[in-house]
Amino acid sequence: MRLSRRLWPRFWSSSARYTPIATSSSPRNSGLPLSYDKRRCTQPRRLIVQRTIYACAAILTLLSLGVLSSGIPPSYSNIWHYEKLLPQHNLTEALVQNRRYLRIPNRVTGHGLNNVLQESVLLSYLAYRTQRALVFEDYTWSHSLSPYVIYDFSLRPSRLPLNAFISGPSAGGAVPPGSERAVNAAFWESICPAESRHTISSADQPKYAEGNVLFDWWMSQLGATQERCVEIDSRSQPVFDHNLFGGPQILSLWEGFSKSPILADFAWSRLVESALNRNLPIIQPGVRKYLSQDGVLPSTFSNLVAVHIRRGDFKRHCYRMVGWSANYMGFNRFPQFLDTFNSSFDEDQHARIQYYLQHCLPSVEQIVEKLRIVRRANPHLKEVYVLTNGWRWWLNGLKAALLEDGWDDMKSSLDLTFDPEQKHVAMAVDMAIAEKAEVFIGNGFSSLTSNIMMLRVSKDVDPSTNRLL
Ligand SMILES: *[C@@H]1O[C@H](CO)[C@@H](O)[C@H](O)[C@H]1NC(C)=O
Ligand SMILES: *[C@@H]1O[C@H](CO)[C@@H](O)[C@H](O)[C@H]1NC(C)=O
């Protein structure tokens, strides 16, 4: 583990929770030097040492079996293959065209899907506006050489193809004439060998600027070069970082961004859609017909309200929000939204904390109350779907309270069923449900909610159906 810490210091510092499988399952970890024992120990002590070794081996075996019992993740070889065969990856053809490319190799890693998604769609927009083909990156959870890492006591793939989560322009899908389709990193290596790359550093970009100021700066940097292969060196400073996504500065980009093919043609992957299909009878058991005649999912799930109730890590995170006087994230602050947050709410500290918790980590009573208010405005809502990482016993309590309050049904992330490939994209399935629910109630402090709002607002749903806790 120390070795991997030295090899990937950035990865370890950003999140120290993953354990590369090779180290933790290594039997040498029992840490008892045998030679020491042979040379110096008396018989009884040797016995103790032996027993300790056996006990450690047994514990390690049990732990490994526990981890393995949740299954070895699939290889996703069909999706890797699909990406490889995208038409823009024909090198013979590409070499005779004068397509131009853009790569930003240092992306967020070891973070949740939503940090990756927000960065990926905005960089796609930059490439689109500068008429370059963006290099799309794998979803990298860990730079470990092993294909899996242990996380939450089960195996998780170190990297997944982006097309497991999304399709559309950001993942190499079709774009309108005059624009360039995104390519994968392997293709970039062939078409843009190292000596052909022109590098621009992000070190001099404006800091804490309005979104459109930052964006225009990049447009002029990229517009000033005609090189075929441009790479942005963002090791000192991400091109688009959490300050931009976290605050209202990003809204100054909305006008152009929302109308661009990046958002207009955004789509979930076939894998996510298949999981959605499979689970619709669970989410809305009363609905008889889920697919239209051409096999397309409906764009709205009528009578369904989806609500994002993040627990787990948010039990700490919400208190940090108080300390930072944080407000709702960027795309949770559209001016037309009914729910706003007052971060300068300056009563005494206790009242402040209660105010933050009500909106960031609400109690069962507060959730029931919020849903009651939303139902009063949308009286035909009948079913609740909860996007959550909470415990089942807690959700059982919430469900009982909601049924008591007159809802027909409540289902949650924990009720969905998946095949082994679908299992690792479950978060995107949740998001697709929230995107299509008639009404969505999000958590203003969450990037998952912010991305759902981005999609819902770009689809022009009635603004009064986008609510926040
Ligand atoms: C790549 O493009 C060339 C030229 O258009 C064509 O002859 C060839 O069949 C293509 N290769 C593949 C694998 O599609
Ligand atoms: C926010 O809270 C402060 C203090 O309670 C109050 O003075 C201010 O008017 C509030 N702002 C809004 C927009 O409600």
What does this protein structure show overall?
- With 469 residues, this protein is α/β, with parallel strands linked by helices.
- The chain folds into three domains: 41-70; 77-262, no CATH class; 285-468, Rossmann fold.
- Helices cover 44% and strands 14% of the residues.
- It contains 21 helices and 17 strands.
- Strands 9-3-2-11-10 form a five-stranded parallel beta sheet, sandwiched between helices. A five-stranded parallel beta sheet has the order 15-14-13-16-17, with helices on both faces. Strands 1-5-6 form a three-stranded antiparallel beta sheet.
- Strand 10 (197-201), helix 10 and strand 11 (229-233) form a beta-alpha-beta unit.
- Helix 15 (314-323) packs across helix 16 and helix 20 crosses helix 21.
- It is globular.
- The chain starts with a helix and ends with a strand.
- The model is unreliable at 1-39 (pLDDT under 50).
- Bound molecules: 2-acetamido-2-deoxy-beta-D-glucopyranose (2 copies).
- One 2-acetamido-2-deoxy-beta-D-glucopyranose binds at residues 342, 344-346.
